[in-house]
Amino acid sequence: MTADRPNLATAARRLMATLVVAAFPALLAAAPAMAATAPVATDCTPEASTACVAAIVMDEENNFVPDVGVTISGAEFEAQVTTTQEGPVSVEVPQVGTYTITLDEATVPDGLFPDPPEIDVTAQRGSTARGAITLGDQPAGAAPTAEPGETATGGAETPAAGEAGSEEATSGGFSLANAWQKFGLGIRLGLLLALASVGISLIYGTTGLSNFAHGEQFTLGAVLAFMGINMWGLPFWPAAILAVVICTATGFVQDVVLWKPLRQRSTRLTQLMIITIGLSITLQFTIQLLIGNGSERILNTNPTSMTIAGIRLSSWSWASMAVAVLAILFIGWFLTRTRIGRATRAVSDNPALASATGINPDKIVRIVWTMSTGFAGLAGLMYGLSVGTFSWNTGMQMLLLMFAAVTLGGLGTAFGALAGSMVIGVVVEMSPLIPGMPNDLRYATALAILILVLLLRPQGLLGRRERIG
Fold first, then answer.
1. What is the dihedral of CA 193, 195, 200, 202, to 10 degrees?
2. For labelling, which of 69, 113, 152, 192 has a CA lying 20 to 30 Å from the CA of 322?
3. Which pLDDT does position 118 carry in this prediction?
4. Domain 54-154 superfamily per CATH
5. Cut 0.70: pTM above it
């Protein structure tokens, strides 16, 4: 009896293995069907390891059209979603690559026709690839149609959750509406750049130092607001004010602990610049330790959208632009109408002469460091709100644009930083309209401008030659 038990166990194992082998093809055949019937989340949030595709269906007045069936397919992936009145619907895709957004024409409202009925978008990790299809009152062929591959007809910015950074990931063919929309995005980027870049310019003007850690001060504003709201449970306004105050205090502390002692030791500018690079790296990984390496959102609520002068932006984008304008006007008033502001300009022009007239350069430099970090933190906070998300290396990505802006405007001149920032912002956002220009290379246009300025006019737009060299 006992001798038969191993034989029975062996036979049972062989039977199970045979059943598994026989069922395996059936499981493979059933897998696509199960994937197709699985529910699809329509609020994808782009992160460093996540790629999202969003479908947008609008009428000719750029209003979202609800209840239209859309299929998103590509890379052995397919999902069916339904549009809503609130904004685009987005899904997470398994890998980067090209995906096709196709309308179910049977679900299109009567009297409207898709133009075109399907488009291709390119998904990339860390962003949302948006594809917009316009419903017109004439069938395709009766009016000019968009070329396949255009991903933003109408150029409307979407404020839905999970669409953070989506306007940065949008590309498309040239049209007047799209160009005007991107011009608005460029103005927004230029104003936020100006708010951050003025600090770099003032620090360089008063000390001769190029601060490579300024980008992390930009990120710090968004990080502190995020932590105040989502970790400490503060309401928005107290969290925002606290973030700006802490950013301002970091500049004061830096000058007391680090920069003034180094100035008193007559440390060379090259060594100081290397210290700023080390400080930048330290702050980057400290921020990464605090919030992780993914993308974060300061607010988890969906912002509303507003159309002003034909430009559709989120309400936070318009508010950020207004705050940036007010802050820039304050900086202009401070530099031109106050005693400390005039002393700052004097130290920037000639520190030795300013000192001979009774101005204390050390006090002026401390005020400059304090103001610069505060405005950089405010710019980072406004950027995180208007774009939607930020990450630990956002400041590092923006630093190239800041340096390009202050170099174009003129190193050491606050008003030059404003002019250069506006030019850089508009050029960067509108460069994807160039035929064949990949959207991912739009920041490279800032580098091209930086190189051209250094070759052709190194003093910048508003700078003076004697300040160079």
1. 140
2. 152
3. 81
4. Carboxypeptidase-like, regulatory domain (2.60.40.1120)
5. no
